[in-house]
Amino acid sequence: MPKQSAPDKRPPDTARRSEKSRRAIYDAALALVAEVGYPRTTIEGIAARAGVGKQTIYRWWSSKADVLMEAFFDLSAQAAQDAGQQPYTIPDTGDLAADLKAVLRATVDELKDPRFEAPSRALAAEGLVDEELGRRFVTKLLEPSLQLYVDRLRAAQDAGQVRPEIDPRIALELFVSPLAQRWLQHTGPISYEYTDTLVDYALHGLAPR
Amino acid sequence: MPKQSAPDKRPPDTARRSEKSRRAIYDAALALVAEVGYPRTTIEGIAARAGVGKQTIYRWWSSKADVLMEAFFDLSAQAAQDAGQQPYTIPDTGDLAADLKAVLRATVDELKDPRFEAPSRALAAEGLVDEELGRRFVTKLLEPSLQLYVDRLRAAQDAGQVRPEIDPRIALELFVSPLAQRWLQHTGPISYEYTDTLVDYALHGLAPR
Predict the structure, then answer these.
(1) Which residues belong to the signal peptide in this entry (chains A, B) (predicted)?
(2) Cα B34 to the chain's mean position, in Å?
(3) Mean pLDDT across chain B, nearest whole number?
């Protein structure tokens, strides 16, 4: 989170101005990385586009990577709210297949959202060749979202719907990674029908029962 | 393939010189893209590094993308031969799990091979943001290798080892895409144990049988 003091400790006007600046900075950072790529995105460029002083950004974040990570974090939280979901949780209705299908359908929508698409690709592309950035991206953004599947699969194990010897951290990759690869590498179309199929195949297996 | 005339139509010395140049060009192209990335790799740079004239490259290929695609194609074929495998086929011993595990173990070796790692990452990263290049990469290199799994899974369906209603093109993603994502995005370690587990989960499913 920004290194600002809590809004309630400051006069309302300052808090409102800060919130407005913060949002302008996120928007500028996402737009810029989408347009010119990560290497050519600079704090100076973000500041100019957001209409704030460079020092405003440096007061809250220590690097362009930090700004971008939080801008994505914020974007994902917004997308979840727009979809009427509680961010950072996967529902447990007792029906594992239905719950996984619902969250993957919401992910399909997010991946196809133009606000998300271009900046995500730019950051992911840089993460492929800049291992340090890639690992931060994974640790801060990707892995926490994958842990939500771990939690849901563990609950399913407790309910006897997933075999007890299964490692949930590997199991989730059977439906999450195919979608990620199709989106990242354009290896195939993505749709609700596709992600529903992945869930069915993963839960029931390819071999006859 | 290069636009050269068939070697047997030319004097042996010319064919030998051409083969040597071709290999020098592939090596130079792979090294260069690994070092400076795809956008800054040029035909001129490849020619200089390979010690050939620029016209030699233009005689055989029409773009740097074409040179690189073939360099990768050649590298993969070499890797398969080094591993004692027939390139462009997945063995059918009658044991589907064993056959899939063997080919994925060979893929793990290839992904960890430094000759392959850096240029592959550079090309994949560019393919994420340059959709046209990405699609060519998929069509020419990735999809043909995925079709080998389709063939093997179809044979398994004929043998009653995979359910008849399964779509093999989606099914293969349950074990191929997790490995691809771990490698591409550094989302987790890759090992033989990991790919063996993916095959077991995919074939038998996560739900109790």
Answers:
(1) none
(2) 16
(3) 89
- Rounded Cα gap, residues B45 and B33, in angstroms: 10
The residue ranking higher by pLDDT, A5 or B204, is B204
**Among candidates A121, A153, A173 on the partner chain, residue whose Cβ is nearest the Cβ of B128:** A121
3-state SS record for A185-207? HCCCCCCHHHHHHHHHHHHHCCC
Give start and end residues of each alpha helix (H) in B41-130.
43-50, 54-60, 64-82, 96-111, 114-129
pLDDT, residue B6, reads 47
* Distance, CA of B163 to CA of B122 (rounded, Å): 38
Mutate to test the interface with A, among B129, B177, B179, B193 (most CBs of A within 10 A): B177
ipTM of the complex: 0.86
Nearest chain B Cα to A190, which residue? B170
**Nearest residue in chain B measured CA to CA from A207:** B162
Model confidence over A68-98: pLDDT tens digits? 989 988 888 887 787 777 777 899 999 999 9
**If you measure CA to CA, which chain B residue comes closest to A178?**
B177
What residues of chain B, 24 to 83, have a C-beta less than 8 Å from chain A? 37
Residue boundaries of the structural domains of chain A: 7-204
Question: CB–CB of A170 and B146 under 8 A?
Answer: no
Q: Quick check: A129 pLDDT over 80? A: yes
**Residue A99 pLDDT more than 80?**
yes
Which residue of B38, B128, B138 is the best one to mutate when testing the A interface, meaning the one whose CB has the most A CBs within 10 A? Answer: B128
- B93: tokens are 């011993």
**For B181, nearest residue in chain A (alpha carbons):** A177
Is A163 in contact with B206 (Cβ distance < 8 A)?
yes
Of how many residues is chain A composed? 209
In CATH, B7-204 is 1.10.357.10: yes
Interface touch B138/A186, C-beta < 8 Å: yes
Cβ–Cβ under 8 Å, residues A40 and A61: no
Closest by Cα among B158, B163, B168 to A205: B163
Structure tokens at A93: 């209705």
Interatomic CA distance for residues A112 and B11, integer angstroms: 56
